[in-house]
Write the structure tokens for this entry.
Amino acid sequence: MIHSQLISRGITDKFVLDAMDKVPRHLFVPLDLQEEAYDDRALPIGENQTISQPYMVALMTELLSLNNNCTVLEIGTGSGYQAAILAHIAFKVYTIERIPTLLQEAEKRFIDLRYNNIFTKLGDGSKGWGEGLLFDRIIITAATPSVPQVIINQLADPGIIVAPVGERYSQSLVIITKDTKKYGNTLNTQYQTPCIFVPLIGKYGWSD
């Protein structure tokens, strides 16, 4: 997977590649799909949700430009795989999920695999984490019509958001950078690649 799906397609960040190599992806998919866990595609994880293909996980992680001082917010825990990748690189990972069964399963994986820098919450991810916290990086792992202002308000300065933005069934991967020293009060927005994610359901996302 590392060479055929990631390095060959331009993933170069050694920390990302190391995390992708170390996290046992097969433990984040249903038992009957474990033999397909490392295939170059998304897989169903129940509740009409998916685990993203390895390349997309690696690409979004690389675009965050992480270091071991970063505190990261993930919107959409899902199986917990993306959070586990982030936890290998970042200082702390906060992840929020709206579906109780998925969050419970992810939390068990985090305990079993001894990730002690991942913090979880059940709730509406379109509202962000709240509680007055600011995050160096924010990753949204579900399709959103636009990045909600309430989430942008939770981004530190400087900070980076990576998210799939667009229509419900077709999006573009967007990188939003907040850096007042470099861009003033304007957010710098870059479009990376077309993508398709399950929808972000919530007050500031799509209706269920």
In short: Residues 100-112 form the longest helix (13 residues). Strands lie at 43-46, 49-51, 71-75, 92-97, 118-122, 135-140, 155-167, 170-178, 188-195.
